[in-house]
């Protein structure tokens, strides 16, 4: 059986990556020119497409309303858990009008498996009521409108815009922020600033798929605690290479399979 693309020998590393690694492990190199950083970023983005050809939105949905509700429910819960409750949720409440008029006890019962079900019922009701009161029950297709909805920030808005409206969006969640900092693409911690900096490096038309690929890489390979550096297809360009095991065998054992990757 052939190895997956993320589990192959690490090729020789590029000069910027070596230089950055030699500066005490700080991944962002202020001396790297914007042109060099952009070239490196685009090379890594192309490699991510090879490594994760199956990257996609892991929340199940059939329309913008379902995706918006599912994304809001996914706070502090895995996508897999949300996918378990949304079939019965949307069968019972297929649109914003139905959800806005939901019986709270019944709604809480449906949401129970997600944990924090009282808070999630509140979020779902507040969101549906705002959609009915201000947007005729329809999900708006503009960032400026989406972020006025309760529980909807830029991250959720970008998920909805990118995956339900075809409007490119960068989804800066915890995986995304951690990885682009490790890549040395930004030193920013604030998600809005991270989004603005990465927008300069990656072509706009690729933002949505690029976000899925980075998040897949964070779930499968570049874990928060133990990055599988020795089995990472990005190692050649990554200044953080070495923060996790570099031994190929040890690192490969850390890589999560597609089935096991939805744990965070
Ligand atoms: S696993 Fe290691 S080499 Fe790969 S992106 Fe993460 S820090 Fe860089």
Helices and strands, with pairings:
Layout: H1 15-21, H2 34-51, H3 64-73, H4 79-92, H5 96-100, H6 104-111, H7 117-135, H8 143-146, H9 154-164, H10 174-182, H11 191-201, H12 207-220, H13 248-254
Helix pairs in contact: 2-12, 3-4, 3-9, 6-7, 10-12
Short description:
With 264 residues, the chain is mostly helical.
Question: What attributes characterize this protein structure?
Answer:
mainly alpha; Endonuclease Iii, domain 2; Endonuclease III, domain 1; 2 domains; globular; binds iron/sulfur cluster
Description:
The protein folds into two domains: about 130 residues, Endonuclease Iii, domain 2 (Orthogonal Bundle), CATH 1.10.1670; about 100 residues, Endonuclease III, domain 1 (Orthogonal Bundle). About 50% of the residues lie in helices and about 0% in strands. It is built from 13 helices and no strands. The model has no long low-confidence stretch (mean pLDDT about 90). The site of iron/sulfur cluster has 14 residues, from loops.
Through-space gap between termini: 28 Å
Strand content: under 5%
How many strands in all?
0
H/E series, N to C?
Answer: HHHHHHHHHHHHH
Average pLDDT reading: 92
Structural class: mainly alpha
The CATH architecture of the largest domain is Orthogonal Bundle
CATH homologous group name of the largest domain: Helix-hairpin-Helix base-excision DNA repair enzymes (C-terminal)
Give the number of domains: 2
Number of helices: 13
Give the overall form: globular
Give the class-level CATH name of the largest domain: Mainly Alpha
Instruction: Predict the CATH topology of the largest domain.
Output: Endonuclease Iii, domain 2
Radius of gyration: 20 Å
**Sheet bearing the most strands, described?**
none
Percentage of residues in helical conformation: 40-55%
Ligands bound here? Answer: iron/sulfur cluster
Low-confidence stretches: none
Family: Belongs to the Nth/MutY family.
InterPro entries: DNA_glycosylase, Endonuclease-III-like_CS2, Endonuclease3_FeS-loop_motif, HhH-GPD_domain, HhH_base_excis_C, HhH_motif, Nth
Protein name: Endonuclease III
Enzyme class: lyase
